[in-house]
């Protein structure tokens, strides 16, 4: 009986998270869920890269904050100032943490310390 109760609770949680995203259409151009805040995220993210990178990633608010802060610190993203909270709220709500489906992947991703070092590009030759 306990297993059955846990199953119903799990299915309820899955259904509620699917219905949360399903109540909004997906923008055919960006691929983003057109929920409140999507236009802000669309404009900010697409300034530097395709929004499909957003769609492929999932994380809680801390994950998204760390990712965006990295972009500010190292990739030239402007300070989000008063748009931090709406951006983080949208991303963590509609692209929140999900468990990896090991039926699709053969192993978990490598820890950052085990990944190869990023290669710096060659410096430009002076003219």
TrEMBL record:
<feature type="signal peptide">
    <location>
        <begin position="1"/>
        <end position="21"/>
    </location>
</feature>
<protein>
    <submittedName>
        <fullName>Cytochrome C</fullName>
    </submittedName>
</protein>
<keyword id="KW-0732">Signal</keyword>
<dbReference type="InterPro" id="IPR036909">
    <property type="entry name" value="Cyt_c-like_dom_sf"/>
</dbReference>
<dbReference type="GO" id="GO:0020037">
    <property type="term" value="F:heme binding"/>
</dbReference>
<dbReference type="GO" id="GO:0009055">
    <property type="term" value="F:electron transfer activity"/>
</dbReference>
């Amino acid at each position: 009986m306990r297993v059955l109760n846990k199953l119903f609770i799990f299915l309820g949680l899955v259904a509620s998270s699917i219905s949360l995203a399903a109540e909004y259409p997906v923008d055919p151009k960006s691929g983003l869920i057109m929920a409140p805040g999507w236009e802000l995220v669309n404009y900010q993210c697409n300034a530097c890269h395709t929004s499909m990178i957003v769609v492929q990633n999932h994380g809680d608010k801390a994950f998204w904050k760390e990712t965006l802060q990295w972009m500010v610190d190292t990739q030239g993203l402007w300070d989000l100032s008063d748009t931090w909270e709406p951006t983080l709220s949208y991303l963590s709500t509609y692209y929140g943490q999900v468990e990896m489906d090991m039926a699709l992947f053969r192993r978990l991703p490598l820890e950052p310390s085990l990944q190869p070092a990023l290669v710096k590009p060659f410096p430009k030759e002076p003219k």
